Amino acid sequence: MDKKKIAVGYIRVSTDMQADKGTSLDNQYARIQEYAMQRGFILENIFEDAGYSGKNTNRPGFQAMFSRVRKGGVGAVIVWHSTRFARNLKDNIVHMAELEQKKVKFFSVEEPEMSGSSGKAMRNLMAVFAEYQSDVTGDHTRSVKANLKKNLKTYCGNAPLGFRNEDGKLVEVQEDMETVQEIMGLRAQGLSYNKIANKLNDKRTGNKGGRFYAITISKIISNPIYSYLDQGREKQPIEINRVH
Prior knowledge:
Blueprint lengths: L5 E8 L2 H4 L5 H15 L2 E9 L9 H12 L4 E4 L2 H4 L3 H13 L3 E4 L7 H36 L11 E4 L2 E5 H15 L4 H11 L10 H9 L1 H12 L6 E2 L1
Parallel strand pairs: 1-2, 1-3, 3-4, 6-7
Antiparallel strand pairs: 5-6
């Protein structure tokens, strides 16, 4: 079989907001499948990382993808957008160079093909902008945390698991908060998002009446409000209404 026609895909989301902007894992998966079919690629596998930042390459799906590439026999890597691959200029340069050295082509569904010296320069410029965007997002997250520390006001339409929204204030729901604490404990033991979701689904009906999924767990673990509450309870009591 022609190596050039064998491809692997890579998809990633790091926050709950991305799922609302058309960049959900399911959407990325479908777009990569469609792209591969149109280009005549045989899509061997699509590796994924749910709830992982692109600021570094400490991502199990990303590492598994490169492990497969290094074994040989792969001619292309396909992503929905280059920001899914990396949001760090250094990582982008290093791993793109490795793909080039192994004669593995890189394709982005949402971006034009970039080849040669000019294409490499354009990819680097895009990586610089992606890193800048990531830094700005980090600054915003820190600002949100500061606001939560100040008054526990909600910052989205739906209250996160463990709370309910009452007149713009987060009111803690004890039963749901116990579920959050269980999730954090299981993650601390090293369980994957999928294993945590399966364990919870075996015990109860799931997230506010529904089922838990890996992406649900990743959203809960990455939500800054829970890290704030942990810090707040250690330092000082928090005056908050509880609903049993």
